[in-house]
Design goal:
CATH class of chain A: Mainly Alpha
Structural class of chain B: mainly alpha
Distance between the termini of chain B: 47 Å
Number of domains of chain A: 1
Shape of chain B: globular
Mean pLDDT of chain B: 87
Number of helices of chain A: 12
Distance between the termini of chain A: 26 Å
Number of helices of chain B: 13
Largest sheet of chain A: none
Radius of gyration of chain B: 24 Å
Mean pLDDT of chain A: 90
Helix content of chain A: over 70%
Shape of chain A: flat
CATH architecture of chain B: Orthogonal Bundle
CATH superfamily of chain A: MetI-like
Largest sheet of chain B: none
Number of strands of chain B: 0
Largest interface: A-B, 97 and 98 residues
Strand content of chain B: under 5%
CATH topology of chain A: MetI-like fold
Oligomer: heterodimer
Structural class of chain A: mainly alpha
Chain lengths: 290, 285
């Protein structure tokens, strides 16, 4: 027994040391620093937090994160579900899936360039080189500066996020969809249910736990969103989000207190989902052990 | 259901799928095509116009790639990315597998509690850790160094690596290990000669995941490597090109494609393992 503990210590040692050093300890320090001024020398109480909820630039970041939160998870999970069901019904399933899944492999920085090019704007009369404005012009509309028009430019950024993450949702949901016992679906069909009824009353209830997991992952993703905004607009023109604001407070303004408070706000927003995933793990452990 | 409505339904399925697939592939296709067009064409006509005369080879060029690799620092950044990514993939997988083996095969106090903490840490935003670590790095001289970013990626990647490998090790038949222990093998032998060789598929999934994660990372590199161009990986170099080359699309598209080529090859060659990794742990910090 004593020997086993010694071995466990040896196997765990490096990991515990690094996780404690890179995640646990700094997280506590960040909470501590969030109550101090820009240089972490003077205690300022809740001042940094009060500023987050009163300063205009900070509020814009919070509002934009909220906009991401109410659109991005629904769009990615909804499209992912639609694609999981539709690709199951065609012969070119694997090709279609590869195409949708492909953006997952590339960086947000690369995707940022791809989409800045898609959104390129040229004045009326000049040849358009961005595909989206070319489509508008071909349909008789005027070209739009997609990344400048508030508040719609936020949707232009969210679209990039959806393009990148829908494949992830599709892959996970598709695996669950294929796991639904065929007999259940066939039985409903034999009973005369329409395809929609089969989906609504047989498949969907079976998919709910998976949809929950994927939705949680997407919510966490969009709360932490940074790269897309950094590359596409750098948070200008009213598109800033919490993570970008924090980066600016840290590197441009050297406001370490405010930056720490922003990180804590981000953490608190994610905390319910951390608790959720810990509880889900406990439930799963119990159901596999008992 | 009668046959006609079934056909109508199936036709609709094809229509929706083809439209979505087009919307998904066209942005990348536009980038790829533009990266092979000369500057004056890229800025004066849409990339789709090449399809009017696709076999007119004079409208294509490799000049953009030559310029990007020699004049913009993207070539150096490519080497930096390789130099950052390889150790930052191997380290967390090795250290994480060791810990995962302890969680799956050994008894020690507080095991369940520590593992729950790990699950929570999977999704803790790294923003919570950046300021204290950066300050420490500045004191220790680790900011702007490869060692610093290797260790940071290892620390951040460990919870996921341990989570994934622990679940895999736990699914291996325990009789096998018991038999090995009875034969006098120690934990080190059991780990290196039994557990690791049997886990090649899981290790492959994890390696692809961590590799793409590090290769595509922008935030961690921005924070711990700062603006130093000598050590900047592709993502950082590309986003600073966006700042300085704003509308020079022939340069930007070629540069972007250089950053994407390795992930795309990995993706097409090893998609199966990638998907498996995603399914095994659909949470990643």
């Amino acid at each position: 027994m004593k020997r086993e503990r010694l071995w466990a210590g040896l196997f765990l040692g490096p990991a515990v040391f690094l996780i404690a050093g890179y995640l646990v300890y700094p997280a506590f320090v960040t909470i501590y620093l969030s109550f101090f001024d820009r240089n972490s020398t003077e205690f300022v109480g809740l001042d940094n937090y009060v500023r987050i909820f009163t300063n205009n630039a900070m509020l814009t970041a919070l509002k934009n994160n909220l906009l991401w939160l109410v659109t991005f998870p629904v769009l990615t999970v909804g499209l992912g579900l639609l694609l999981a069901v539709l690709t199951d019904r065609v012969r070119y399933e694997s090709v279609a899936k590869s195409i949708i899944f492909l953006p997952m492999a590339i960086s947000f920085a690369g995707a940022g360039v791809i989409w800045r090019f898609m959104y390129t704007y040229r004045p009326v009369g000049d040849p358009q080189i961005g595909l989206l404005n070319q489509i508008r012009v071909a349909l008789g509309a005027e070209p739009v500066a997609w990344l400048l028009e508030r508040p719609w430019n936020n949707f232009a950024l969210i679209a990039v996020g959806v393009w990148m993450w829908t494949g992830f949702c599709m892959v996970v949901i598709s695996a669950a969809y294929k796991g639904i016992p065929r007999e259940l679906v066939e039985a409903a069909r034999v009973d005369g249910a329409t395809e929609w009824q089969v989906f609504r009353h047989v498949s969907l209830p079976q998919l709910l736990p998976t949809l929950g997991v994927v939705m949680t992952t997407m919510i966490i993703n969009c709360l932490k969103i940074f790269d897309i905004v950094y590359v596409m607009t750098n948070g200008n023109y009213g598109t800033e989000v919490i993570a970008n604001r924090m980066y600016k407070e840290m590197f441009q303004f050297r406001q370490y207190g405010r930056a720490s408070a922003l990180a804590v706000v981000l953490f608190l927003a994610i905390l319910p989902f951390i608790i959720l995933s810990v509880r889900r793990h406990l439930r799963e452990e119990r159901s596999t052990n008992g | 259901m009668d046959k006609r409505s079934l056909n109508f339904g199936q036709g609709f399925v094809h229509l929706v799928l083809v439209l979505i697939c087009l919307a998904w592939i066209l942005p990348t296709l536009g980038l790829l095509v533009s990266s092979f067009r000369p500057a004056h064409l890229v800025s004066n006509s849409g990339w789709w116009t090449v399809f009017l005369t696709p076999f007119d080879l004079t409208q294509y060029t490799l000049q953009n790639y030559q310029d990007v690799l020699t004049k913009t620092g993207i070539g150096k950044a490519f080497l930096n990315s390789v130099f950052i990514t390889v150790p930052a993939t191997i380290l967390p997988i090795f250290i994480g597998s060791l810990a995962a083996f302890a969680f799956a095969q050994m008894r020690f106090p507080l095991k369940e509690g520590i593992f729950l903490l790990l699950i929570g840490l999977l999704v803790v935003p790294i923003q919570m850790t950046m300021i204290p670590i950066l300050r420490l790095y500045n004191q220790l001289g680790l900011a702007g160094t490869f060692t610093g970013i290797w260790l940071a990626h290892t620390g951040y990647g460990l919870p996921f690596a341990i989570y994934l490998m622990r679940n895999f090790f736990a699914s291996l038949p325990s009789d096998l290990f018991e038999a090995a222990y009875i034969d006098g093998a120690g934990p080190i032998k059991a780990f290196f000669l039994l557990a690791l060789p049997m886990s090649v598929p899981a290790l492959a999934s994890l390696a692809i995941f961590q590799f793409l994660w590090v290769w595509n990372d922008l935030l961690v590199a921005l924070i711990y490597l700062g603006g130093t161009q000598d050590v900047a990986p592709l993502t950082v170099a590309l986003s600073s090109l966006v700042g300085s080359y704003g509308q020079n699309w022939h340069v930007l598209t070629a540069a972007a494609f250089v950053t994407m080529i390795v992930p795309l090859v990995v993706f097409f060659a090893l998609q199966r393992y990638f998907v498996r990794g995603i399914l095994a742990g659909s949470v990643k910090g």
